[in-house]
Design a protein that fits this description.
Layout lengths: L1 E6 L6 H11 L2 E5 H7 L6 H10 L12 H8 L3 H29 L4 E5 L14 E6 L2 H12 L3 H10 L3 H7 L2 E4 L4 H12 L3
Parallel strand pairs: 1-3, 1-4, 2-3, 4-5
């Protein structure tokens, strides 16, 4: 089984690519952002650690951690944000490695994917067999974000400037998919890479 990381800048089309892969290959796909929510559920180690760090006030009436309450606490305090990340990121990795182990044991999955914009910064190069960079021209990305998410130019520029540069992505990834144009061409690149799976 190949463990593949999928990363790239905002608007590059990672979700669309993963939808295609899910339809055409025997695989399991995990989005790191979604896993981060799973590992914060009541009863988990991360949940207990977060309440200890942030106080029970971040839990809503249903017992779940209130996303807005937590955000209000941590984004005003960079040191606290770092501590929260120190709880959540290892929990996400632990969750993924456990799922990977289960998938290998079951023997029904050929490919195991994890997707996040911050895989490289999060130290996933040491975990995955391959890291893929989903590239799209900046003008194309900007157009997609305006059309699909209604983002302003200012918001797009702010998000893009907070992410790795194209050079940094390319330097860290062993495979690049150009998703700037026709999606059929993108699919051809994926199929060529995964042929034989």
């Amino acid at each position: 089984m190949r463990f593949i990381g999928i990363t790239g800048g905002v608007g590059a089309g990672k979700s669309e690519i993963l939808r295609y892969i899910k339809q055409h290959y025997k695989c399991e796909i995990y989005l790191a952002d979604e896993v981060a929510h799973l590992v914060k559920r009541p009863g988990t180690k991360a949940y207990e650690a977060l309440l200890l760090l942030l106080g029970s006030g971040v839990a809503g009436s249903d017992g779940q951690i209130d996303k807005a309450a937590m955000a209000a606490r941590i984004f005003a305090d960079p040191a606290l944000l770092e501590q929260v990340n120190g709880i959540i990121h290892p929990a996400v990795k632990e969750f993924l490695l456990e799922r990977l182990k289960e998938a290998k044991a079951a023997g029904k999955t050929e490919l195991f994917f994890v997707e996040a914009a911050l895989l490289i910064e999060g130290g996933y190069l040491a975990l995955v067999d391959e890291m893929w960079y989903i590239y799209a021209d900046e003008a194309v990305r900007r157009e997609r974000l305006r059309a699909s998410r209604g983002y302003s130019e200012e918001k797009i520029t702010q998000i893009m400037s907070s992410q790795l540069t194209e050079e940094q992505f390319r330097d860290s990834c062993g495979f690049v998919i150009d998703n700037s144009g026709d999606f059929g061409e993108t699919c051809r690149q994926i199929d060529e890479r995964l042929r034989g799976c």
